[in-house]
């Protein structure tokens, strides 16, 4: 791209002379000559269309150009007084090279136009949009174009409306060509043909202007209206065009408005000076309505250059004025806001190509945060920059250069000296915008963040202190993402994890990898609950890699960021082995005391019930002996007394056995082979097994070891097996099956038979009671299950039973 600021005038001329010509230039010039528009008199219809184009596009200049061999001539113009330019300095000379519209958003940055006199000098054009105008053969003769001093492009709606204007211009050209043809054939064509052509022309014209939203009218040299469109009639409040034709504005409006409008008409008609885009505030005669009108009036010349009338365009801009007022109020509010920002200021900074700085605007609030008045900063921008802390200046410059090079936002925190000598923290953000002159305009905000920085530094120090505690605490912490990926962890967490897992803690590793797959579903559920704000806590027992039992308290809770969004999950792990053992021991003691109390209560009931029965019998016999009449009667009573005494002795023996079990708080407990004791019991009961032809299936594994008292274990197994044999079904071959399995870290011995069974709904609550029997056997005494249950519970276990009459019974002994 050329730098026209450094080129000589001769070099600029040479570049401009390089404007290309179409390949069909001779045919194009021939077509242009045939339509006979070059140097023709002004035409109100063409002028009206060009003025309408300017109105639609909010452009200061609009043209209908014709490109001759060496010049660009304006058939219709709006916003300029000149009638032609050199072809080599034209914009439309490029438009006729293509079939589609030519749009140039920044003329100063385009090599074809950067040296154009209208670009480098008044009116300093920056935007061009041109539509090629062609004849019936498709030969480009010129352009309908709009030009602007702003580089803001047309909207899609404006472009669409401009193309509609171009179609109307094409129609006028066709009428013009038809008129030329009619003049050449006057001698041979009938008069009614000319009349028909003129009527078609007039009909097309009325169709055109009546469908435009702006008020359009034509007046004669006395200011009387000769043509009006529907929009103008609506503006006048008239429904019939005949009521407006032939009248001046003085007659139509009356009053001050009529006088003023009529004076404008006479000024245009007598001086030839057009009126462009004059804003007028119109108040209705009754004062009820007020609106704004944008008016343009352009003189009409005949072939001799004499003014014969004028064409006028009026656009209702009331809505635009309301919007402008709103924007103006907002701009005023913004200015007020900019000057009252408590800890900041806004600015516009101009940076020249040589690096010189100039503040175009600085809000007054800058003085509150820097101690320097806005007027002083505008006078000396470089001196303001010199107050940046030297150590922060390289970062400041680097970020500014990066923003300029990449055309993105400048964002920097830095220190700068206040006018009072205090070093403060500031934050600046600005948007760079390059202009056609190689300058950069920075629009930005400047904020004092000193207090924020002090808090941030204090928080950083607090965070450092927290990290020190974090690393030296005895509680293990792991911070994880919502997906349970490890983000950070402390030393204690590393140590605790290594106790149970060979996989070490690593950033990016996932918690799922430290749990068996069967636990993943529960872990997912817990994670979901924690992410929803719940806190999950549990005590977990582990067996370390060295076989040691350890207890940990695990706590999962979510961590939120500053916006209260979930940032992750924090898992805390605390070694509670000592505390847990104490708790378990205490719980064991409590359970023991509680169980002993229950047993004591039950024992007291047994004592009061059973002993009272025996003592009542003794008392009754003693009374009877007092009244005995013979020795024979006394001997019989003594015999009964002996029987009762033996029963009392037996009861005392049983109660003594129960007391013996329940009083052994520290019973001798050993690791015993369950299979060995089962074999021993089967051997003891061998005779009974053979006598009843019992099938015994012993499926207990060899490696099962239980913590139990040896005497108790033998008693328990003997009791269950002897009962299974004793209560076998008389019509079945007796079968007994012994199995063993793990349940919740406990061994469970299951003994099943196919014997008589029991109705547990009827006898379930009494099953383990003392002296409770259920089958009517004479040798059943109801003591075995009672003793067995007490022995199992004394060892910390429990017993469960399921039974069905005539099907069989299953006992489950849970070992601690």
Topology diagram in text:
Layout: H1 9-16, H2 25-35, H3 44-57, E1 61-67, E2 71-78, E3 84-86, H4 92-95, E4 102-104, H5 117-120, E5 127-134, E6 140-148, H6 156-184, H7 191-210, E7 215-220, E8 225-228, H8 230-236, H9 249-252, H10 255-271, E9 275-283, E10 290-301, E11 307-316, H11 318-338, E12 344-351, E13 357-362, H12 366-370, H13 374-379, H14 381-385, H15 393-406, E14 410-417, E15 423-434, E16 440-448, H16 450-472, E17 476-480, E18 486-489, H17 491-500, H18 520-531, E19 536-543, E20 549-560, E21 566-575, H19 577-626, H20 631-663, E22 670-673, H21 674-684, H22 686-691, E23 695-698, E24 705-708, H23 710-726, E25 735-743, E26 746-753, H24 760-763, H25 784-794, E27 798-804, E28 808-814
Parallel strand pairs: 23-25
Antiparallel strand pairs: 1-2, 1-6, 2-3, 4-5, 5-6, 7-8, 7-11, 9-10, 10-11, 12-13, 12-16, 14-15, 15-16, 17-18, 17-21, 19-20, 20-21, 22-24, 25-26, 26-28, 27-28
Helix pairs in contact: 3-6, 6-7, 19-20, 20-25, 21-23, 23-25
């Amino acid at each position: 791209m050329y730098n026209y600021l450094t080129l000589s005038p001769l070099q600029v001329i040479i570049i401009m002379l390089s404007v290309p010509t179409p390949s069909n230039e001779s045919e194009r010039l021939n077509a242009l000559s045939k339509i006979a528009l070059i140097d023709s008199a002004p035409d109100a219809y063409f002028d009206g269309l060009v003025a309408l184009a300017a109105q639609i596009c909010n452009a200061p200049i609009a043209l209908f150009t014709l490109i001759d061999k060496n010049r660009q001539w304006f058939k219709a113009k709006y916003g300029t007084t000149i009638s032609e330019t050199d072809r080599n300095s034209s914009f439309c000379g490029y438009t006729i090279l293509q079939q589609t519209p030519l749009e140039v958003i920044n003329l100063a940055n385009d090599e074809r136009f950067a040296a154009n006199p209208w670009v480098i000098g008044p009116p300093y054009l920056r935007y061009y949009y041109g539509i090629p105008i062609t004849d019936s053969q498709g030969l480009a003769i010129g352009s309908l174009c709009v030009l602007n001093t702003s580089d803001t492009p047309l909207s899609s709606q404006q472009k669409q409306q401009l193309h509609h204007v171009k179609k109307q211009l094409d129609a006028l050209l066709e009428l013009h060509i038809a008129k030329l043809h009619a003049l050449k054939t006057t001698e041979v064509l009938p008069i009614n043909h000319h009349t028909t052509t003129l009527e078609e022309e007039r009909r097309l014209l009325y169709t055109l202007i009546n469908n435009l939203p702006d008020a359009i009218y034509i007046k004669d040299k006395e200011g009387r209206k000769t043509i009006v469109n529907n929009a103008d009639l609506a503006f006048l409040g008239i429904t019939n065009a005949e009521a407006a034709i032939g009248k001046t504005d003085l007659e139509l409006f009356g009053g001050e408005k009529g006088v003023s409008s009529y004076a404008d008409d006479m000024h245009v008609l007598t001086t030839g000076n057009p009126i462009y885009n004059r804003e007028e505030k119109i108040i209705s005669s009754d004062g009820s309505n007020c609106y704004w009108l944008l008016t343009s009036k352009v003189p009409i010349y005949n072939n001799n250059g004499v003014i014969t009338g004028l064409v006028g365009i009026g656009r209702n801009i009331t809505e635009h004025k309301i919007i402008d007022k709103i924007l103006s109020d907002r701009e005023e509010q913004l200015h007020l806001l900019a000057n009252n920002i408590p800890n900041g200021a806004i600015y516009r900074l101009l940076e020249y190509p040589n690096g010189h700085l100039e503040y175009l605007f600085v809000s007054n609030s800058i003085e509150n945060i820097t101690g320097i008045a806005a007027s002083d900063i505008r006078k000396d921008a470089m001196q303001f920059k010199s107050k940046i802390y030297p150590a922060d200046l390289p970062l400041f410059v680097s970020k500014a250069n990066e923003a300029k090079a990449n055309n993105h936002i400048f964002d920097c925190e830095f220190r700068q000296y206040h006018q009072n000598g205090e070093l403060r923290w500031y934050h600046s953000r600005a948007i760079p915008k390059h202009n056609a002159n190689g300058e950069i305009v920075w629009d930005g905000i400047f904020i004092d963040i000193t207090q924020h920085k002090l808090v941030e530094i204090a928080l950083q120090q607090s965070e450092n202190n927290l990290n020190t505690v974090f690393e030296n605490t005895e509680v293990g912490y792991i911070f994880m993402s919502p997906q349970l990926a490890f983000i950070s962890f402390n030393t204690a967490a590393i140590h605790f994890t290594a106790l149970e897992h060979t996989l070490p803690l690593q950033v990016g590793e996932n918690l799922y990898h430290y749990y068996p797959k069967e636990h993943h579903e529960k872990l997912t559920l817990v994670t979901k609950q924690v992410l929803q704000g719940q806190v999950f806590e549990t005590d977990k027992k582990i067996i370390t890699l060295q076989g040691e039992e350890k207890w940990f308290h695990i706590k999962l809770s979510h961590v939120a960021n500053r916006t209260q969004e979930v940032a992750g999950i924090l898992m805390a792990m605390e070694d509670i082995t000592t505390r847990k053992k104490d708790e378990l021991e205490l719980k064991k003691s409590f359970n023991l005391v509680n169980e002993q109390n229950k047993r004591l209560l039950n024992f007291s009931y047994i004592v009061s019930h059973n002993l009272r029965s025996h003592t009542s019998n003794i008392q009754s016999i003693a009374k009877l002996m007092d009244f005995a009449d013979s020795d024979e009667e006394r001997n019989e009573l003594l015999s009964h007394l002996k029987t009762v005494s033996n029963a009392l002795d037996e009861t005392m023996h049983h109660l003594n056995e129960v007391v013996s079990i329940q009083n052994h708080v520290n019973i001798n407990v050993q690791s015993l082979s369950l299979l060995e004791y089962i074999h021993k019991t089967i051997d003891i009961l061998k005779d009974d097994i053979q006598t009843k032809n019992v099938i015994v299936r012993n499926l207990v594994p060899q490696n099962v070891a239980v913590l139990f008292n040896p005497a108790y274990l033998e008693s328990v197994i003997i009791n269950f097996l002897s009962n299974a044999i004793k209560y076998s079904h008389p019509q079945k071959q007796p079968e007994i099956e012994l199995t063993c399995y793990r349940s919740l870290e406990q061994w469970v011995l299951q003994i099943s038979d196919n014997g008589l069974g029991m109705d547990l709904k009827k006898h379930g609550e009494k099953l383990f009671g003392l002296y409770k029997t259920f089958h009517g056997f004479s040798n059943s005494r109801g003591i075995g299950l009672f003793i067995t249950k007490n022995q199992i519970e004394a060892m910390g276990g429990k017993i469960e039973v399921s039974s069905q009459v005539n099907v069989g019974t299953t006992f489950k002994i849970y070992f601690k």
